[in-house]
Amino acid sequence: MLCTHDDAFEEVTSMASRKLPNILITGTPGTGKSTLALSLLESLNSQSDNKFSHICVGDLVKHKDLHIGYNQQFQCYDVDDDKILDELEPLLDLGGCILDWHCSEIFPESSLDLIIVLRCDHQILFKRLEDRNYTPEKINENNDAEIFGECLHEALEAFPNPGQVVELDSENLDNLESNTDRFITWLQSWKSDNL
């Protein structure tokens, strides 16, 4: 039987008995993915039995050359999905990864235990992207993606298991605190079900 890269990755990942789950925090650029990831990391790693790692996939793409070049028109790297998966596979097998990236569809279903899709009011998002000095075209493109819920739709299509994808508001510090608390509650449930 011919085994594709994705099939092999799913098989290895599903066979691994992880002591900690793998989480993807996704959403349109500017919705607070890195902020939530760092909040989770701080809260979780203060407990002795939790040792999570934060992996910003965009930074990994840039620093490990997991791309096929820079796209001037869209001001981003054209990523190489296979290179990304090859780099992340050993880490995901161990568990305890908090991935932070705007894309969810490249990951095999069994590699992630929870996908958090952050959502933000488009006016707040516009200001955040403006503060990052994004071009007007890039601001509009990302704002449209948020308005139409593209990251949520992609996650729901790639991960159809009920409860595996969670949509959370990410507009202020109250949201950040409640999202962190909600994840800690989810983690306790995951541990009781899986360990």
TrEMBL record:
Belongs to the adenylate kinase family. AK6 subfamily. Its EC number is 2.7.4.3. Keywords: ATP-binding, Cytoplasm, Kinase, Nucleotide-binding, Nucleus, Ribosome biogenesis, rRNA processing, Transferase. It comes from the Eukaryota. Residues 56-79 are annotated as: NMPbind. ATP binds at residues 30, 32-35, 132. The keyword Transferase applies. The keyword Transferase applies. This is Adenylate kinase isoenzyme 6 homolog. Broad-specificity nucleoside monophosphate (NMP) kinase that catalyzes the reversible transfer of the terminal phosphate group between nucleoside triphosphates and monophosphates. Has also ATPase activity. Involved in the late cytoplasmic maturation steps of the 40S ribosomal particles, specifically 18S rRNA maturation. While NMP activity is not required for ribosome maturation, ATPase activity is. Associates transiently with small ribosomal subunit protein uS11. ATP hydrolysis breaks the interaction with uS11. GO terms for molecular function: AMP kinase activity; ATP binding; ATP hydrolysis activity. Residues 131-141 are annotated as: LID. One of its GO terms (cellular component) is cytoplasm. It catalyses: ATP + H2O = ADP + phosphate + H(+); AMP + ATP = 2 ADP. It is found in: Cytoplasm; Nucleus. GO terms for biological process: ribosomal small subunit biogenesis; rRNA processing. Interacts with small ribosomal subunit protein uS11. Not a structural component of 43S pre-ribosomes, but transiently interacts with them by binding to uS11.
